[in-house]
Amino acid sequence: MAHQAGGRRPAPPVPEGLEAQAYLQDYATLLQAGPFPSFVVDHRWDVVLANSAFETLFRGVGPHPTAMPGDNFLRFVLFHPDAATVLGEHEPSWCLPMLAHFKAAWERSAHDHGLQAIRRDIAQDPLMEAAFRQGLPHWIRAVGEGAGEPDGAVRPLLHPDPRWGATDCRIVVESPRTLQALGYTRLTLVLRDSRRPAAAPRRPRRARAAQSHLTVVPAPEA
């Protein structure tokens, strides 16, 4: 967050009523004009706006009562059984960073009802709860405290369009003043042409675990 000498910069006034509605309508038009998957979320990762490129990326995802990508992106990453079919290297590249991001949000706003509901769902899934309590601290120690922040991260994707296929995206997070005042943040997944030379050697992809637990969490003994 930006600061000025002598203290924090005052937040801009929040537009109200029709003014805010009109701004979001125009922002949706701007979002739609972009070629890459782009979406706007609130602090709970509820999706407020999304463009057609975002919808195309997740068009093959099956129905789910609470974890559709166009409803809440955090829930999608953590709970949707089809998430790994689109989000490459799902566990280390998407699930653990998102858990770390959620942990930070939870510690800031544990009173928030939406975050409380997500925390309850994590607790009701024994494997996810083990990841949150045991695997996540181990992962944060290994990669550093800032690894959960999405802005600038390069993560693998499995795009349904064969022109992209298995590729990478750089996540770019933007919050114009008015959007920020409304409590929203925009994320864009800037797709990388998989045919162009990589700037640096890529990490070898980790094989998917044969069992449905996160590999940073020790498998239960037989």
Structure description:
- The protein has helices at 17-33, 52-57, 73-79, 90-108, 113-124, 126-143, 177-181, and strands at residues 3-4, 7-8, 38-41, 47-50, 154-158, 166-174, 185-192.
- It has one domain (16-192): Beta-Lactamase.
- The protein has 7 helices and 7 strands.
- Helices cover 38% and strands 15% of the residues.
- It is globular and about 45 Å long.
- Helix 4 crosses helix 6.
- It has 222 residues and is of the alpha+beta class.
- 27% of the residues are buried.
- The strands form 2 sheets. A 5-stranded antiparallel sheet has the order 4-3-7-6-5. A two-stranded antiparallel ribbon has the order 1-2.
Summary keywords:
alpha+beta; Beta-Lactamase; two-stranded antiparallel ribbon; five-stranded antiparallel sheet; disordered C terminus; disordered N terminus; 222 residues
Helix content: 25-40%
Compute the separation of the termini in Å: 48 Å
Number of strands: 7
- The ordered string of helix (H) and strand (E) elements is EEHEEHHHHHEEHE
- Label the overall shape: globular
Biggest sheet, in brief? 5 strands, antiparallel
